[in-house]
Design goal:
- This protein is mainly alpha-helical and 325 residues long.
- The chain has one domain (5-322): Orthogonal Bundle (Farnesyl Diphosphate Synthase).
- Helices cover 74% and strands 1% of the residues.
- It has 15 helices and two strands.
- It has a two-stranded antiparallel sheet.
- The two termini are 15 Å apart.
Length: 325
């Protein structure tokens, strides 16, 4: 049975409530339009997985303080900025079931709001001498940008090997969760070994998280409805497809590549490819790899004392691969 995020959040529920107000304060502006837009952003917040990772890690590693709250605000400000810019670049008019900023206020305003959020995050760190936190989060943003560009480059050529796939998701997705965990630890401790351990823990969780997202493209298999095939339509080579490409005959490989390259908008052809990947254990393999990364992450927590906080962190890791969406 899937554990609710509310139950996972319980050991840091009070801190999360305080954080929500501090995050709201960090976005305030003297410009009425900006305040209107940032309030819209705040109302659309999701399950708050990133702040949960940060607060649970911080509380497990030491005593939470103002620096912990600033670390959470910094990550949310910079990450929200990247999402706003992504929606503009992708010409996406919806996010989490709500209209995106560019859909409501057009591209120019959306880009400027993203820039504003980025600057607020930088100033929050600089004004409080949190340079160690700024370094962690800035590196994550750099990695995310490089991961996106690497994916675009490789998708065009359709020559993604498994190693390159992991390079992409480590940078594009895992680096952000890694920064949450390392920033959480860095906000309560100066122990470089502990901070690096929690960064690596977050990276492993992030990789498992992304593989779970890959599996959602095969909806009927993962019990979330019909297969979407969105990744295939966008010519993204994910782990299930890559694993099958690496083991089938040259003839089948050419057939698979042809569909992705030339028939990715044809629902019937995409469905045939999805069926082929399933029959050749592409999803079984991806699930095994996902579980391996999850177990490696959980193994890294064994040295910590058994507490309610640690158990919630374990449950949060389990949740990342058992979630339904």
């Amino acid at each position: 049975m899937e554990i609710s995020t509310e139950k996972i959040k319980a050991p840091v529920a009070q801190e999360m409530k305080i954080f929500e107000q501090k995050f709201k304060d960090s976005m305030k502006s003297a410009v009425p339009l900006l305040d209107k837009i940032t309030n819209y952003i705040l109302k659309r917040k999701g399950k708050q997985i990133r702040p949960m990772f940060l607060f649970l890690t911080a509380k497990m590693c030491g005593d939470m303080n103002e620096s912990t709250y600033r670390a959470a605000s910094l990550i949310e400000l910079l990450h929200t900025a990247t999402l706003v810019h992504d929606d503009v670049v992708d010409e996406s008019y919806e996010r989490r079931g709500f209209l995106s900023l560019n859909a409501l206020w057009k591209n120019k305003i959306a880009v400027l709001v993203g820039d504003y959020l980025l600057s607020r995050g930088l100033l929050l760190s600089v004004n409080n001498d949190d340079f160690h936190l700024l370094k962690i989060v800035s590196n994550a943003v750099k990695e995310m940008s490089e991961g996106e560009l690497l994916q675009i480059e490789k998708s065009r050529r359709l020559n993604v090997e498994e190693k390159i796939y992991f390079d992409i998701i480590r940078q594009k997705t895992a680096s952000l969760i890694a920064s949450c965990c390392s920033a959480g630890a860095a906000s309560v401790s100066k122990d470089a070994e502990l901070i690096e351990k929690m960064r690596l823990f977050g990276e492993k969780v992030g990789i498992a998280f992304q593989i779970k997202d890959d599996l959602f493209d095969y909806g009927s298999y993962t019990e979330i409805g019909k297969p979407t095939g969105i990744d295939i339509k966008e010519k993204k080579l994910t782990l299930p497809i890559i694993s099958v490409l690496n083991k089938v005959s040259d003839k089948d490989r050419r057939w698979m590549i042809n569909i992705i390259h030339n028939h990715n908008e044809d629902d019937l052809q995409v469905s045939k490819l999805i069926d082929f990947v399933i029959k050749n254990d592409g999803l079984v393999y991806a699930t095994e790899v996902m579980n391996r990364y999850k177990n490696e992450a959980l193994e890294m927590l064994t040295s910590f004392p058994e507490t309610e906080v640690k158990q919630s962190l374990i449950n949060l890791v389990e949740y990342t691969i058992s979630r339904k969406k």
